[in-house]
Amino acid sequence: MSDTRVQARGGRLQMPRSRGAASGFLLILLGAWGALIPFIGPYFDFAFTPDTEWTWTMARGWLEVLPGVATVLGGLLLLASSNRATAMLGGWLTVLAGAWFVVGRALAGPLAIGDVGTPVAATETNRVWLELTYFYGLGALIIFFGAVALGRLSVRSVRDVAYAERPAYAGRPVAAAAQPQPAPSEEVTEIQPTGERPRRSWRDMFAGGGGHRPAHR
Length: 217
Prior knowledge:
Distance between the termini: 63 Å
Low-confidence stretches: 5-10
Number of helices: 7
Structural class: mainly alpha
Strand content: under 5%
Shape: elongated
């Protein structure tokens, strides 16, 4: 019997999409927060200076929008890809973006990319909360979920093996034309008609004694 199980395209790189789906979804949310909060935070007095809505600065672009967009992109790769290499690329992209959220402010001066301003906070607690949710805490969360995703992707489980070696025709009907047809037989069988008497020659009909006359009903 021939083996109907074949290696899927990509071999060992194939995996179920659900492997990085949860981490990818959370990273998309975190990246969207990091990229949008500097522009919508002033609506509810939760911002750095300048505390005006939808104000673009070079520092915000480099230190908040760029890593936020990179996190969203990496999360999308984790969420949608069934290729292990592509998903791991997304995971590393999120880890790097999270690290940039953490260290970007310290490197802003030497790199001459501007200053994000100061927290608009009345108390020290509010200032610390702003620092964490805009940069340090946000970056740490992104690094954590990105590392979790990379850890899951680095392990090839039994489920991954079963997915990569799934039957080639699972769930698909086999076409009638593809089914093997029986080979035609070379023997010729003579078929005699049923219900008919065999013909008798004229000699049998007129021969006396030796022949058998047909019975009359």
